[in-house]
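User: Sequence in, structure out. Go.
Assistant: Echoing your sequence, followed by the structure tokens.
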Amino acid sequence: MIEFLRSLVGIGADNLNPGQMALRAVLTFVVAVIIVRLGHKRLFGKGTAFDLVVAIMFGSVMSRAITNTLGLLAIWLAGFVLVMLHRLMAALAYRLDWFGPLVKGHPVLLVKDGQADPAALRDAHISRMDLDQALHETGSENDLSRVRLAYLERDGTISVIPRHEGPRILEVSLDKDVQVVRIAVE
């Protein structure tokens, strides 16, 4: 029975036939989904370079299970170890303040109180057009004076915190002896 299963998935074969590769693809897909579910949702979400590296490595390892004639379990175990390593490092980054920036990076302040930091933009390779695009995506104008803070986040996105100016108050007096009326203009 074990020999039949080995031949069915092509373990130890010189070459894999299309049926063996298709069966390996199905099995590897199921195993990969199980492994990824044991990891974090952010592994394949919009994450940091740390998340991206693990995702690429996981995909590379799991693809070998489809095309390689070696043992499937060893390859699946390698994929499992990668995902668990990601989970461990994410847990350490959560618990140790100094470890998170080490593996995930840190945000970079690009704009403060309406003033762009040219050195930060240059170091982050962010052009003024990139910054304008981030402003558009947040619904802001290209007017930096309306930006309180803008950061290049650890995942590579630019977040913009607009300047919240209170309503402008107009004082209107109709007559010298009449009470002043205040009008808030937003």
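User: And one key feature?
Assistant: The chain has a mean pLDDT of 84.
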